[in-house]
Amino acid sequence: MATLNFQEEFSSKIPALTLLTTLGYEFIPPSQCSAMRSKVASNKATNQVVLLPIMRAFLAKQTFTFEGQAHPLLDSAIDKIMHELNPAMNLGLQAANEALYNAMLYGVTVTEFIDGKKTSQTIALIDWNHISNNSFHVTEELVVLNSEGTNSRRPDIVCFVNGLPLAVIEAKRPDSSREWQSTNAQAVSQHIRNQKQKEIPHLFAYSQLLLAVNGNDGLYATCGTPEKFWAKWVEEEISEPEFARLKNQTLSPEQIENLFAHRPVSITDEYKSLIAGGDLVVTDQDRLIVSLLQPQRLLEMTRLFTLFDKKAGKIVARYQQVFGIKALIDRISIFDEKGSR
User: Fold this and answer.
1) Residue 315 in contact with residue 208, Cβ under 8 Å?
2) Is-contact 26 229, C-beta < 8 A?
3) Burial of 220 (0-12, 13-18, 19+ CB in 10 A)
4) CA gap 143, 122 in Å, rounded
5) Nearest Cα to 158, choosing from 209, 124, 193?
6) In whole angstroms, what is the distance from residue 20 CA to residue 40 CA?
7) What φ, ψ does residue 178 adopt, rounded to 5°?
8) Measured distance CA(56)–CA(135) in Å, rounded
9) Distance from C-alpha of 254 to C-alpha of 275, rounded to nearest angstrom
10) Is 1's pLDDT higher than 60?
11) Contact indicator for 105, 278 with CB cutoff of 8 Å
C-alpha cells in the first residue's frame, strides 16, 4: 500500500498540486481545510463542503448601492446568503447543481433595511469581471461524509473559488493493475460513483469541472457526464514554451513549506531532489490542468461554455467548440477598411 501511495503522490498528485500553486491557488492542508468547513472545531468528517470563512470574507467585501450611497452587507444578510448555498439535494443532483450554478452566475437576492427603508439587492458570489477580486484555494484528500452519514469519501484534489468547490480532481498512478482498464478510466469511474445518491453528491452540487489525471494525461467533464463523454483537451491559445515555464516555475520556500509540512520528510526530500535535477517534461496532465484550471479559464469555462439542456443534462463545451466560438467572435468583432464586419 505504501508503494501505491508513493507512486500516486509523485506521478500525479504532487505535480498537480505544485502546478495549481503556480497558477495562483493557495494550498490549504487537509486539517486546516476541515476546520474551515465546520462551525465547531472538529476532526470528524462533515458533509459541509464550503470553506465557510473564505466565503464569508468575500461577502463581507461586497457592497450595494442604495439612494446613491454604498453600503456593506449586514451579518444577517451574509447569514441568509450562506444558508442559500446549502444544496437542495431532495430534488436530485442535477437540479441542485443547476440551482447553485444560477446562484454563482447571477448572485443571491437578499433584503436589507437602510434607515427603515426596505431594499432588495442581488449579491454576487463570484466576481466574473475582475479575477483578482476572487480567492482561489486548493486542498487534497477532502474527507466528505456521505449522504447517509455512514461513511466518507476522499476526492484527491478540490479547487475552490471564494470557498466554493468548483473543480474536483481524481489523481491516479499511470500504471494500471487492470490490463483491460486505464487508470484514467478508474478515476472517471470513481467520479461517477461519488456522484450517486448515497455517496457524496452534495460536493458535486457545486462542481463545474471534473478532471481525471494519471501523471501522463487526463480527461475532463462536468457534473452528471456519462463515462463515454469524458474528453481530452487540445489547447490552441497557450504555447508549449508557456506550458514549460509554468511546469518549471520555482515555488517559494513558503509555498513548499505549505505543500509539504504535513507529509513525511522523505517525500519533501524526494521532491527537492526531483526539481534539482533540471527541467521537468510537460505532460498532457499538465496541459489539461493549465488549460482548464488557471483561474481565468476556469471562470470562463463556467460562465460562458457550460449549458443545461432538458434532455442531455449539463454539458461543458469541447475544445473545438470553445476555440471555434472564440474565433467566430474575433471575426465578427473586426472591421475591414470599409467599416464592414
Assistant:
1) no
2) no
3) buried
4) 33
5) 209
6) 29
7) -115, 110
8) 12
9) 16
10) no
11) no
pLDDT at position 174, please? 84
Grid cell, residue 263, equals 507529509
One-letter amino acid for residue 209 of the chain: L
* d(C-alpha 35, C-alpha 263), whole Å: 19
Amino acid at 238: I
What is the tens place of the pLDDT at every residue in 270-312?
A: 998 989 988 999 999 999 999 999 999 999 999 999 999 999 9
- Residue ranges of domains in the chain: 2-331
CB under 8 Å to 306, separation ≥6 — which residues? 101, 208, 222, 314, 315, 316, 317
Query: Measured between alpha carbons, how far is 28 from 138 in angstroms, rounded to an integer?
Result: 6
Q: Is 52:41 a contact under the CB 8 Å cutoff?
A: no
C-alpha cell at 132: 483578482
Residue 6 pLDDT class (50, 70, 90 cuts)? very low
Whose grid coordinates read 476522499? Answer: 154
State the alpha helices, DSSP H only, in the chain: 2-8, 14-22, 30-36, 52-60, 75-84, 93-106, 183-194, 201-204, 240-247, 253-260, 265-276, 284-293, 295-304, 319-333
